Amino acid sequence: MLNINVLYIYPKIMEINREINLFRIVDNNIKETLVIYGEKVKKDFKLLMINTMSGEIKNLGLVNELEIEKYITKVKAKENEFTALKDLNEIEKYILNLSIN
Questions:
Q1: Is the peptide bond before 11 cis (omega within 30 degrees of 0)?
Q2: Residue 95: C-alpha distances to residues 14, 18, 59, 66, 82 (Å)
Q3: 73-86: per-residue pLDDT in tens?
Q4: How far apart are CA 27 and CA 72, in angstroms?
Q5: For a surface tag, which of 21, 34, 41, 68 has the fewest beta carbons within 10 Å of its beta carbon?
Q6: Cβ(4)–Cβ(28) under 8 Å?
Q7: DSSP one-letter string for 23-62
Q8: b/e string for 48-60 if b means 16 or more Cβ within 10 A?
Q9: In DSSP terms, which residues pair with 21 in a beta bridge?
Q10: Sequential pLDDT tens for the chain (101 residues)
Q11: For residues 4 and 26, is the Cβ–Cβ distance under 8 A?
Q12: CA–CA distance from 50 to each of 1, 4, 92 (Å)?
């Protein structure tokens, strides 16, 4: 059985070096993480997800600062659904399919 924790970093820590960490999905059994963060592009943020197991970075889309809060709210509302999935790869697919707008 999975032992998944979701750690919400935003808005506790704001932008540092043109990046902003939003949240991490941690599988405590295998000690691997999905990190969702944003890179500043002019006035917007390009949301990215890195899988620490594979090192692969995937683009989630471009949002403005106001849309970040809406995205975090959406993720929190769906947390019970994706933490119940069978493994971190399934959770990664779920997050990729979760619309950012």
A1: yes
A2: 22, 23, 11, 20, 8
A3: 999 999 999 999 98
A4: 19
A5: 41
A6: yes
A7: EEEEETTTTEEEEEEEEEETTEEEEEEEETTT--EEEEEE
A8: bbbbbeeeeeeeb
A9: 37
A10: 578 999 999 877 777 888 999 999 999 888 899 999 999 999 999 999 999 999 999 999 999 988 999 999 999 999 999 999 988 999 999 999 997 76
A11: yes
A12: 23, 16, 9
Q: Which two tokens stand for residue 69?
A: 């809060």
What pTM, to 2 d.p., does this model score? 0.89
Query: CA 74 to CA 3: how far, in whole Å?
Result: 22
Cα(63)–Cα(41) distance, integer angstroms = 10
Q: What's the chain's length in residues?
A: 101
